Structure prediction request, 497 residues.
Amino acid sequence: MGNVIEVQHLSKSFGNHEVLRDIDFSVNKGEVICIIGSSGSGKSTLLRCINLLEKPSGGQIIYHGENILDEKHDIHAYRKKLGMVFQQFNLFNNHNALNNCMVGQVKVLKRSKEDAEKIALKYLKVVGMDHYVNAKPKQLSGGQKQRVAIARALSMEPDVMLFDEPTSALDPEMVGEVLKVMKELASTGLTMLIVTHEMEFAKEVADRVVFMDKGVIAEEGSPEQIFNNPREERTKAFLKRTLS
Amino acid sequence: MSIEYIISMITNNWPMFLRGAGMTLLISIIGTIFGAIIGLLAGVIRTIPKPERKIKRVLLKIVNLILSAYIEFFRGTPMIVQAMVIFYGSALAFGIDMDRTTAAIFIVSINTGAYMAEIVRGGVISIDKGQFEAAQAIGMNHVQTMWSVVLPQVIRNILPATGNQFIINIKDTSVLNVIGVTELYFQAKTVAGISFKYFEPFFIACILYFVMTFTVTLILRYIERRLDGPENYSMIGQPPPQLMLPKNKANID
Prediction:
């Protein structure tokens, strides 16, 4: 099986508030998965649990046959294999666009500065930001920041890219430029896990759509099945609310 | 107490005033630098997230406890008293006969360190959580995150407070005359003792203190501007297509 990540019986509580309950879920190589659901359904928490920004309360996350929640497992080595794109971009404010894409390569992957710069420029070109290598984050617009953030994650050449509502903090006119980049990435066979509110986008690029509701996966399937023939009542209700 | 008298006092005693001002600057510069280093280390240690392993957790707790004790003690007692206790205490308890200048630098350093530890901690707390998360997400550990991402931003943000501390140090080294350090206040007092005039030597000292502090303020402002970098950036190569005007209008018709 081409499983990259397998999540088994994952649960997460903040205090006595159970955010995720018994999540079983797997990511196959080359697959583009969109996670949809209303706010507070646990989509972002699931994504953040997968790269351990939140510590799961229970269950297992299997990555290439190893349980990364095991105490002995090297978290940093695992995280560098996952690229993360945040809702709030989180570019390093003290670095320009180029250095944002280089610092992880040099410090974590121990690449030489020359190699790192080449790779950074390659991915800045992919997202169309190669002209802005000298710009500091505060000098860029939201859409531009997010594209640099995508290039930063790609520069680490990860196995899986995680996107946590990458367009939710953007002005409507800038959503398009980020989605366009993501569509291009999806067509290259990159493994992507995307939490999104953009239903049209999900319909278009996803190989599989996961609908979450109240901390559980309520339904998953192909985009045609989820959007055209949802089985569950709550999926129907959610789609009716968001698509109308 | 005419202007002429002050000028003659300067011309007669300028080596003493100059040496005093030099000593004051030496102690406060070295003290501030060492203090800032102590503060950065303490501030970074105090912001380490809770480790998973129990042994590490206990160890960190002990270190934090020691650091808190250090900070609270040196912030909570006057430097003039610390100077007496450390200078005479070290001789009494350990038989160490400290050089007065070394003792002065030591006292100013650990005093500044205690304040700077809190300034740095505040600076680290003020950095957006997203910066830490982004660094962690690309696989950086705590030291790498701090070194490459957080501390450069913290240092920029705490520069005004550090400058403040530096200026306080220039002024507060005057209390070190109690252990006989020949800084500016001590020298002014000596001149006063010789000449039996009190206003003039202290007036001169006053002006010298102000010149030193104001110069430091100007230098720090300059450094801040340098660290902020230019307002503008230069584009590399051609501007992106969406900014270019249509080349051939005939095609549109």
